[in-house]
Write a sequence for this structure.
C-alpha cells in the first residue's frame, strides 16, 4: 500500500487539462470577474465618501454613527441569509447578479469605512485648509487631494475586498442558483460533487486555478497593502 502522505509516484497535469476543457469554465470566470469588480467598485466609492465625512466634516451624531461600524464588522453573513433572501425575492434580485453585488457591497462597507477613515485622519488638516483658501470645494478636495494621498489605503481595501468576494461561496450559492450565473468558486465546488462521489483531484486542480488571479493581485499590490494596513496607527 502506498504512502498517502508521500509524494505522488506519477505526477500528471491531466486534472488541470480536464478542468480547463469544461465548457462553462469561461462563463463562471466572467461571472466572478463581474461580481467582484462591481461589488468592490461600488463599496469603495461609497466608503471613500463616507470615510471622508467621518474624518473631516462636522455633523450631529458623527462619533456615535462611526462607533456603530465596529460591531457591524463582526456580524457573520450567515445570520442574515434568510432575511436577505426574503428581501431579494420581493425585489426580484434572486438569480440576478445585482443581488449579490448589493449584498457584498453592504457587507464590506464597515471594514472599508473604518480603515479609510483611520487613514484620512492622518492627513494633515493644513493641506485641506490650504485647498479651501485656494477655492476648492469639498468634492474637489476629496478628488484632487485625498484620493492621491490615500492610494496605499485604497489599494489595501481593494485587495482585501476583492479576495473576499472572489472566494465567497455561501451568498453566491444561495442567490445565484441558475447554472449560467454561477461563479467560479461555486461552479467548481458544486459541479464536481455527485450524490455519492467527489472527484477530489479535479476539485483541487480547479481551486488551484481559481487562486491564480488572487495570487497575482497580491504580488502586484503587496507593498501598498502593507503600508495601508499600518497607516491608521500613526495617529
Amino acid at each position: 500500500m502506498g504512502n498517502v502522505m508521500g509524494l505522488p509516484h506519477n505526477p500528471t497535469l491531466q486534472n488541470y487539462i480536464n478542468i480547463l476543457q469544461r465548457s462553462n469554465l469561461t462563463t463562471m470566470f466572467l461571472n466572478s470577474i463581474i461580481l467582484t469588480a462591481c461589488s468592490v467598485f461600488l463599496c469603495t466609492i461609497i466608503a471613500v465618501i463616507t470615510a471622508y465625512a467621518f474624518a473631516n466634516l462636522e455633523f450631529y451624531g458623527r462619533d456615535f454613527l462611526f462607533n456603530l461600524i465596529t460591531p457591524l464588522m463582526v456580524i457573520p453573513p450567515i445570520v442574515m441569509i434568510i432575511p436577505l433572501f426574503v428581501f431579494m425575492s420581493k425585489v426580484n434580485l434572486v438569480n440576478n447578479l445585482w443581488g449579490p453585488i448589493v449584498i457584498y457591497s453592504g457587507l464590506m462597507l464597515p471594514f472599508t469605512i473604518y480603515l479609510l477613515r483611520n487613514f484620512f485622519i492622518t492627513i494633515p488638516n493644513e493641506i485641506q485648509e490650504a485647498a479651501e483658501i485656494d477655492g476648492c470645494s469639498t468634492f474637489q478636495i476629496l478628488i484632487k487631494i485625498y484620493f492621491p494621498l490615500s492610494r496605499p489605503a485604497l489599494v489595501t481595501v481593494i485587495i482585501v475586498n476583492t479576495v473576499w468576494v472572489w472566494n465567497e461561496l455561501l451568498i453566491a450559492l444561495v442567490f445565484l442558483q441558475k447554472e449560467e450565473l454561477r461563479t467560479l468558486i461555486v461552479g467548481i465546488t458544486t459541479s464536481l460533487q455527485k450524490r455519492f462521489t467527489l472527484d477530489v483531484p479535479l476539485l483541487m486542480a480547479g481551486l488551484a486555478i481559481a487562486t491564480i488571479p488572487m495570487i497575482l493581485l497580491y504580488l502586484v499590490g503587496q507593498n501598498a497593502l502593507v503600508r495601508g494596513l499600518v497607516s491608521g496607527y500613526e495617529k
Remarks:
- The two ends are 61 Å apart (CA to CA).
